[in-house]
Q: What sequence folds into this?
């Protein structure tokens, strides 16, 4: 597992994308690529994962099934920027069965020699046996810019609007303000899943933030208690 160090903002509707691209390039970033991504999100019927600040998805890129990902959001109150995103990413065809076993363990799925899927189809069938179903797709056109280990991505997301994301080994929150992008929109802390469910399901995610502030470890799985404890100790 690894930490996903990024910050995402929803761009205001009145900001032209060409102006955003020009602004990024003036900072010395070079356009790297454009691609169409479709993220298929999986969850239990009651949206248990989403309700606990977790996400499970299969990503397709330019028509090819690329990877299977698990994400979990943690709140470390001892940090200046308290949000920590745990990410486990497994490329297709699945060869790293140890990583898959790790994700299955977090989901409470028993890992055996007979349930080691390699293809997306086999994986979806196995998830369905555990009542984890595809809930919706989120499609976006992504334009990526890169400079010295930092990536800026501008997403045009169907039905949701335009977003800007900074991913870096440095502190993305500080880069956001250093680059002057904070004025372009508002932060999206719970990802595209929350934005999608808020718009199309009427779910209010403000209560999740309040939960984190009152009880930082409220969503930590029993199997990740030790991992969370080490994170807290490391960031004191």
A:
């Amino acid at each position: 597992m690894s930490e996903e160090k990024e910050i995402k903002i929803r761009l205001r509707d009145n900001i032209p994308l060409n102006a955003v691209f020009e602004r990024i390039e003036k900072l010395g970033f070079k356009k790297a690529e454009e691609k169409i991504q479709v993220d298929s999100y999986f969850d239990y019927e009651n949206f248990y994962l989403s309700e606990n600040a977790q996400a499970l998805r299969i990503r397709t890129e330019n028509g090819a099934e690329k990877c299977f990902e698990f994400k979990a959001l943690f709140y470390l109150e001892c940090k200046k920027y308290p949000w920590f995103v745990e990410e486990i990413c497994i490329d297709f065809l699945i060869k790293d069965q140890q990583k898959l076993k790790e994700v299955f363990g977090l989901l409470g799925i028993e890992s055996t020699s007979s349930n080691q899927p390699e293809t997306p189809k086999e994986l979806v069938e196995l998830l369905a046996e555990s009542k984890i179903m595809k809930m919706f797709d989120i499609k976006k056109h992504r334009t990526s810019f890169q400079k010295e280990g930092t990536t800026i991505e501008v997403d045009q997301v169907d039905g949701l609007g335009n977003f800007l994301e900074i991913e870096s080994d440095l502190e993305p929150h500080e880069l956001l303000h250093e680059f002057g992008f904070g004025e372009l929109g508002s932060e999206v802390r719970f990802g595209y899943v929350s934005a999608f469910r808020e718009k199309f399901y009427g779910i209010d995610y403000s209560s999740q933030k309040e939960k984190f502030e009152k009880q930082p470890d409220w969503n930590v799985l029993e199997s990740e208690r030790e991992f969370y404890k080490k994170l807290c100790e490391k960031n004191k």
The first strand starts at residue 2 and ends at 3.
